[in-house]
Request: fold
Amino acid sequence: MPEHARPTSTADLCALIAEAARRGTPVELRGGGSKSAIGHPDRKAMIVEMSGFAGVIDYDPNELVLTVGAGTPLAEVEEMVAAEGQMLAFAPFDHGPLFGHAAGSATIGGIVAAGFSGSRRISAGGVRDHLLGFEAVSGRGEAFVGGARVVKNVTGYDLPKLMAGSWGQLAALTSVTLKVLPRPRTTATLVLRGLDDEAAVAAMARAMGSPAEVAAAAHLAEAGVTALRIEGFERSVAARAAMLRTLLGGGDLLEGDAASTIWDELTKPESLRGPDALWRVSVPPSRGAELFRALEPLGARRIYDWAGGLVWLSLPAAADQNAVRRAALDVGGHAMLVRASEELRRRIPALHPQAPGVAALSARVKAAFDPSGILSPDRFGGTYAH
Reply:
């Protein structure tokens, strides 16, 4: 079989995967390649380029529903919905800039398969909450569909939630149907300066627990900036910003480019670029600062998103990288190795090890969709990503 393939129809993709399954040939799906450096570096697999499944299939702005080919670049999708005054509310996180790729080079199918959401996740939900349906080809080489083109769908199993975050290990997505939402008319960011990590996490917790309806909360520790985003109608935004100022004892209110610069750092973190290993750690929000303090002696740098529930950590390559997972476990979290040298990626699996019961269940799910085990079998050390 070829080392690379670019099918342009579901029939071609079915035939390709069915033949790979018959021969036992590993297959790795690739959209824009923005996340190809995540996982074990020595993967031997036929690369199936999914760019042939690009383009708008159906978009009804009045119904807030978009169906698009999985190989469509994220930048095109975001530009299209923005032209209608709408947005992908889960704020897709584009890994491309972390690896030197242009922003927007990721595909919408890759975004869904990775299941990573941006700063608005704490208010709008994650990728899986906005994925209404999909079309895909399983590891058996069989086309199937999941979900529906309606927001309320209770028939059968909730396969969209299973596909979001599966990293292409269960099936090849050919199209996705997403719920979109109107863009807020007014956006403002309240900025607190000079807080240490503990004080910033406490301030974000108070803001999230208030009636101010904060859309996103982050602490850019290296810059000494704690940011709280408020969205909605102009008068409502102004009133809620005043409420937060009173609650938190002040702060500067930013709009336009000044505010956008802060949130761009959450999607394209300049402060965490470089040769250091980069970790994505999910923790209980109240314990994010505790995680960092445990790793600070090793030279760690950090950014807190999701009101402290997501910590981006960079650690010098020579430091004990396993300390990140130990610290994550100590605070009730889990850590994913996102960027590292090939040597580190050979030694340390990208995904946090699963508990035995969860690993057994994951293996059964994987076997149901991909009985021959050909879809990205060694990217994560034989572990199903979900």
Notes: Residues 270-347 form a domain with the Alpha-Beta Plaits fold (CATH 3.30.70.100).
